[in-house]
Design brief:
Helix content: over 70%
Distance between the termini: 29 Å
Radius of gyration: 20 Å
Shape: globular
Length: about 325
């Protein structure tokens, strides 16, 4: 287990360091124009990375058994925060996802994923073989998935709501739930998410534009077209770090949701594949940690977090390459 843990730490730190370089490259032009400071967004990103490393150390020190005893408190806490976000978060680009804490803003949906993973790991371990009963699966486990994902859906944040559902369903499968129950629940969840998405204008427009691009051809939108142009111009080995042209205001959100396009432009196909391999390495190492965990809770916790990381990465890359509609996943 220690070897797998060291691999996770090494690859994660390596990706963070590379991320700093690409955020600097992708954000400098926009930062200079918007804030008259080349390093404004870069400095903000450094602060977030440092904060993340701090919490990484804190959570690593705490024995994971501790989370069993506080999972109920965590899930109630995030429920209250998500309710607050739904009613009081400022609307940005059509959705209210962010809470401003002064020094930084954050999306409670991200905490919702982690806390739900912890709580589901506790519940699945507790239910044991009874998870194969559809009534138990729906009323005792999927109930919390509906609550948390529902609050996220109505922000509206369709993509993160779906990510949370698929993470939960994968945990149910690993925990021993019947495949037919999971497939039925998946179908219902997707149909429900689409129905909610059609209520809100900006998410409805994104979905309809994506469907039209599939049916009638053409680009999804200018943002995706510019992202594909960046990826294509990178060639095999890229333009070199710091030499991106698309980050000069041609590609919106080049420093955020579409950062993978800048990676492809500057590092090329080889570099892009290396980043993807890095994420898969974290996932595989996480699975190995899960297999060696001493109890079901530890196994599900390690699996859920590992799957969450690679699923978020996959969707970000899929959106950048036009495989999925634009979502807003960070």
């Amino acid at each position: 287990m220690k070897k797998s843990a060291y691999i996770i730490i090494f690859v994660s730190v390596s990706l963070c360091v590379l991320g700093l370089a690409f955020v600097m490259s992708a954000s400098s032009t926009y930062s200079n124009i918007k804030f008259e400071n080349l390093f404004h967004l870069f400095n903000s990103h450094i602060f977030r990375v440092a904060l993340g490393l701090f919490f990484l150390i804190v959570f690593a020190i705490i024995p994971y058994d501790t989370y069993k005893h506080i999972s109920k408190g965590l899930i109630f806490f995030i429920t209250v925060v998500l309710i607050y976000t739904l009613f009081y978060a400022p609307s940005i680009k059509g959705s209210g996802r962010w809470i401003n804490l002064g020094l930084m803003s954050f999306q409670p949906a991200d905490l919702g994923k982690l806390f739900l993973i912890i709580h589901l790991a506790v519940l699945i371990e507790r239910k044991g073989d009874s998870i194969q009963n559809l009534k138990v699966l729906i009323l005792h486990l999927f109930f919390w998935v509906i609550i948390i994902s529902g609050l996220i859906f109505f922000q509206p944040n369709i993509s993160n709501g779906l990510i949370l559902i698929f993470i939960s369903l994968s945990m149910f499968f690993v925990g021993g739930a019947k495949l037919k129950h999971i497939l039925a629940t998946s179908l219902g969840s997707v149909l429900g998410a689409i129905s909610i998405a059609m209520i809100f204008e900006h998410s409805r427009n994104r979905m309809l534009t994506f469907v039209k691009s599939i049916l009638y051809g053409g680009g999804i939108n200018d943002q995706v077209n510019q992202a594909l142009l960046a990826l294509g111009s990178g060639g095999l080995f890229g333009q070199g770090i710091g030499n991106s042209k698309q980050s000069n205001l041609f590609l919106p959100e080049s420093y955020g949701d579409f950062i993978f396009a800048i990676i492809g432009e500057e590092l090329g196909f080889i570099g892009s594949v290396s980043i993807i391999v890095g994420y898969f390495t974290i996932f595989i190492a996480g699975i190995l940690v899960a297999k060696k965990a001493r109890d079901t809770f530890g196994q599900l916790l390690a699996f859920g977090i590992s799957f969450s990381i690679i699923l978020n990465a996959f969707i970000t890359i899929a959106v950048t390459t036009g495989i999925f509609p634009t979502t807003g996943v960070p």
